[in-house]
Each structure stands twice: as C-alpha cells, then as structure tokens.
Specification:
mainly alpha; 7 helices; about 65% helix
C-alpha cells in the first residue's frame, strides 16, 4: 500500500525505481501510476480483509515477485558478498518478511476472524437460519 501511495503522490519516483531495481520493466510514468493504483487498492483490501480469495494471491504475486526481482539486496543487504558499498540497500530486507507474511495469510485464511469477508459471511449465515 505504501509503495502504491508513493507512486501516486510522487509519480516521478516510480520510473526511477523501475529503472534501477527492476531492469526498466514498465518504467513509463503512466504505467507506474496505474501500478500505484493497483498496489494501493490491493493493500487497502488486504488490510480490510475484503475479497481475500482474489486479493491475497494478488498480494503474494506482487510481494514475492518483487522480492525475487531484488534477490541480491535480500541475500546481501550489507553489501559484503554480492553487492558493493555503493549498491547495498538495507531498506529492502523487510520485503522478505512481507512476502512471507502474505504466504502465511493465505495458509491460515480460515482462522482470520477479523476480516470483513468473514464478518459478512457470518452475517449471511445468521440471516439464512
């Protein structure tokens, strides 16, 4: 959600990130704005727990795909082996935790009693009784 908001609030940042860390993939400003909207929507729906059957796998694709694209920064955040001091980036390391947390959300979705999807489902079950 944060990266989506950054791409929307500061559209000039997205193309630079795409060029530097993702090999220029979709670095056009219009694509970065659209990507920002998608990231923000997926993030908000995840926080609310709405449309989890669609949103959780979408979030997993976004976060795991993003983590795979920056694998060198995740394996060597201090720049000791794969990177040098100029290219090291410690700030990407939490991406690994977020990607893992998303996989945990998917694995334990039925235990997520605070999700709005869960609340709406129970409300419908009670009304049908």
């Amino acid at each position: 959600m944060v990266w989506g908001i950054i791409r929307l609030a500061a559209p000039e940042v997205g193309p630079g990130l795409a060029d530097k860390y993702y090999g220029g993939l979709a670095s056009a400003a219009s694509l970065q704005t659209a990507w920002g909207v998608i990231l923000a929507i997926v993030g908000i729906l995840t926080v609310l727990g709405l449309f989890r059957k669609i949103v959780y796998p979408a979030q997993a694709l976004i976060l795991v795909g993003g983590a795979l694209a920056i694998w060198k920064y995740l394996l060597d955040p201090l720049g000791m082996y794969l990177l040098d001091e100029e290219s090291r980036q410690v700030l990407f390391f939490p991406s690994l935790c977020l990607a893992a947390a998303t996989l945990v959300l998917i694995a334990f979705k039925e235990f997520d009693t605070l999700a709005l999807d869960e609340k709406f489902t129970k409300k419908r079950e009670y009304q049908s009784i």
